[in-house]
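Entry 14. Ran structure prediction on the chain below.
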Amino acid sequence: MSTQLRPTDVKRLNRHWRQRTQGRVGLIVESVTQPFNLGSILRTCAAFGVEALWLSGNAIEPTHPQVGKTALGSEKKLRWEKLRTSAEAVTAAREAGFRVVAIELATGAAPLHEAPLEGDVCLAVGAEDHGCSPALLAAADSVAFIPQIGRVGSLNVAVATAIAVAETRRREWQAAPVPAEDGA
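Output, structure tokens:
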């Protein structure tokens, strides 16, 4: 029977995964206006070690009082910057050494499981209603989509972000050598 891990066991488990993590992940959030969506995105970023977060367009800021209801303090653990345009956010990400991959159902997009997510990658997600803007899609180095087989047209932006960030880390962890203490 499984039981929940104790806090010290959780810390040990997290340390194990940090040791297997070398790549840097960034995120551009374009015009996400709902506080609960941003809070959920921030919590995902903190859980998966997203290094930098750029907010653009009319994105709500992490300091908004309602963001904390879903972020649960993770907003204080992240480095973020608000920029006026998505082009500025892409430029900032590239200057920080990231390749930008927009997550969007768009012509020419690759399925997420085939997208170039290796190395230092900055994912980019767009607004709740209309996704990534044409300007963001044009500025990105590549575009990927999350394959879906259900009867809905798209995913919630916070869910899509979580899937994309998790896939980025999964690929890295799958390819990483197992630390010595794991082999014992």
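The longest helix spans residues 157-175. Will compare against last week's run tomorrow.
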